[in-house]
Design goal:
2 copies of one chain form a homodimer. Helix content of chain A is about 45%, strand content about 25%. In chain A, helix 2 crosses helix 3. The radius of gyration of chain A is 19 Å and the shape is flat. At the A-B interface, strand 2, helix 4, strand 6 and helix 5 of A face strand 2, helix 4, strand 6 and helix 5 of B. The structure holds a DNA duplex.
Chain lengths: ~140, ~140
DNA sequence: CTTCCTGCAAAGAGTTTGCATCAAA
DNA sequence: TTTGATGCAAACTCTTTGCAGGAAG
C-alpha cells in the first residue's frame, strides 16, 4: 500500500497510539501541539486522509458531522440513544464471515467496518412515552 | 412513541415515500418545494430530527458530514471504496440476533442499525500499489 | 532542480439558532 | 389565550482549498 509516510503522518500515528480512543481531527491538532509539534490544522486533515486511504486509520462519522479517527481496532461498536446521545460500547460482532465473503466476492480489499445501533435508552423511552400520553401541558 | 406529527412532518414522510432512497435534508427541501409546499430549510431539519427520535426516519452520516435520511428499511448496507468513494449495496446482514440480545440486555428500544464496510475497490488497489512501487515520478 | 509537503488564512458546505409571526387547541 | 410550529436570515462548526515558502531526494 502507498508507503511513504511523511513526518507529520508519523507524528499523528504516534500521538494516536498514546490516545487509544477515537479522536476528532481538531483534538488531534491540539494534542500534537501539546507534544510540541508545530503543525497546521489543514495538515492534520490532509494527513489523516492519506492514512485513511492506506487503512492505517479508520473513521467514524458522527450524526453531528464530526469525524472520529482511530487506529484500526476490531469490534468497537456502539448502541446510541437518538434522544440524549449517550452510547454504550459493544464488542460483540457477528460480521466477520460476511466480511470475508464480500472481500472475495467483490475483490475489495476491506480495511474495516462500522456497526452502530440506534434507538432510545430506558430513560428517554420514559420521557417519550410520557410526552405521547400527555400531549397538552 | 411521541405521537403528534405536524403538517410538515407528514409532508416530509409523504415525499420520502415517493423517493424510496436515502436523501439529504437539502434535497428533501427542494423536493418539498417542487411539491408546492412552502417550507423553510430549518423546518426540514427540525422535522427530520423529530421523526428521527421517534424512529420514523433513519439517518446515515457520510464521511463528508452530510446526512442521508430514509424511511426505516432493513438491511441496506454498503461496501465503500475509501479512495474513489464508489459503493456497492449489501443486503445480507447477520446482526439480527445480536440486535435482539442487545435490546433485551440493555433495555434499549432499538430502531435500526447501520453496517458499513470500507476498503479499496479493485481499480483503486491497482492505483495504490502502483504508487507504492514507483514512488518518484 | 523538481516534487511534494506544510502552514496560514480564507472559503465552503451543511446544519443550527434567534426571533417575530402564525397555527392549533 | 397559550403553546408549539414555522420561515427567514444570521451564526456556527467542521472541513477543504489556494498559495507561497520549505523540506526532501
Amino acid at each position: 500500500m502507498g508507503e511513504r509516510r511523511t513526518r507529520n503522518q508519523e507524528r499523528i500515528l504516534k500521538v494516536m497510539k498514546g490516545l487509544m480512543q477515537p479522536t476528532s481531527a481538531q483534538d488531534l491538532y491540539i494534542q500534537l501541539r501539546n507534544h510540541e509539534y508545530t503543525i497546521g490544522l489543514a495538515t492534520v486533515y490532509r494527513s489523516l486522509d492519506a492514512l485513511k486511504v492506506d487503512g492505517l486509520v479508520q473513521v467514524r462519522t458522527l450524526p453531528s458531522g464530526e469525524s472520529l479517527y482511530s487506529l484500526p481496532q476490531e469490534d468497537r461498536h456502539h448502541l446510541t440513544c437518538l434522544r440524549c446521545g449517550n452510547s454504550i460500547l459493544i464488542t460483540e460482532c457477528p460480521v466477520h464471515d460476511l466480511e470475508d465473503e464480500l472481500q472475495s466476492h467483490h475483490k475489495f480489499r476491506i480495511y474495516y467496518h462500522t456497526l452502530e445501533f440506534f434507538g432510545l435508552c430506558p430513560s428517554c423511552q420514559a420521557k417519550e412515552d410520557a410526552a405521547a400520553d400527555a400531549p397538552s401541558l
